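Thought: the user wants the 3D structure for the chain below. I'll pass the sequence to the structure tool as-is, report back what it returns, then summarize two notable features.
Action: structure_tool
Action Input:
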Amino acid sequence: MKLLSRAALSEHLLTVAGANREVLREAPKERGKQVAMGAVLLTTAGLAVVSASYALRIALHLWVPVAILGGLVWGLVILNLDRWLVVSSPRLKSKLGTLAMAVPRVVLAVLIGAVVSTPLTLAVFSAEIGTEVRVMAAEAEDEFNQRMQDDSRTAELEAEQARIAELEADLADGVTQDDVNEAPAVVDVQRRLDEVTARYEAAEAAYNAEIDGTGGTGDQGFGPATDARRADRDRLRAERDDLARQLEALKAETYDQLLAEEAQKTIDQENELADLRADVTSLQQRLDAEAAAHEAAVDDSDGILARLTAMSRLEEGNPTLGTAHRLLFWFMTALECLPILFKTMLALGPPSLYERLLALGDEKVEERVKLRMQTEYEEAEVLARSALGAAEARAARMLEAESRATGMVLDAQLEVTRQGVERWRDEQFGDTRRSNGHGTDLVKHL
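Observation:
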């Protein structure tokens, strides 16, 4: 069973390598090389499967079985390409010609190897790259927040929101005593009242000091000075009381006036508030959409491009890591290019027994094809000549038959013509005889 499975595996590898089994039966020692070539092709295809599966997983975040299925499809594509590159590599008579034919295939193999090797090298350094990707995401987040903070729309939004809060508070409070006290006319009267009150209190203090002798003239008791100070105090008190009455009346009048103005002001404020709320809602939606888009971009910032960028940043800060990455990359690329490189090296060396037998087989096939084509050509030529002779004979017979038919037609036409002339003559002669007979009878009658 083990030998059978090994033989079956060898047969599959020969199929992968595109080997000619008829030639291998004549040169069994060459079988191992072709089996090895098939194994190399399968190895590169296996690397392509791993690479594509990892790339699909990190780039598109596919479910693992789906990513593996995609990797298998990609591996099959790479296997077919590598197999075509190996099978189609010709051996020309000159090494320079062989090398010239091999160069485009080698270049294509290098490109394929680079594509396949990139995800593999990223997978090897995935830990370091993941850390750097998170750092890049944090930097992008800080940059976005700073940009949004410096954006004029943010300042506009804050100003409109502050204005909305101010309008809402004003509408909720209505007309307050503070609004009345802040009216210019009320402020003016209040200022005058405060001044008069201060002067009154000073006059009251001076009057009391004059009575007890602690101020003024220094004499205790009542007198002319006391009367003067009392008169001054009473005058200021009357002025103060008058201003207080004016202030109360002005406040009542101002309150009524503010209530009247508040009705129209409320309408204007409500209209302004509605416009501001609409503007804020629209602006907030745009900013939220940008923030959501940025968040989605940050969430998806661990793809192939982001990891390549992170790898470049790591290489700039760590030359050792850069050297290791490049060596690994070129090693993987060389593995992917191994089949075509191996085939090119064999093509530049002396032809092997397998190649010589394969060339002889091709020559035999070419000779058989040439012989078959020559035979077919000769057979076609003989058939053409036979057909030409037969056609000529048929043409001669047809010409003879046509000549006979033409002669018979002419003879018949001549006989018909002769008979017609005889009938015409007989008719003419008959008419003449009848005319002569009538004339004789007439003469006899007379």
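Final Answer: Structure generated. Residues 6-150+318-349 form one domain. The chain has three domains: 6-150+318-349, 172-300, 356-389.
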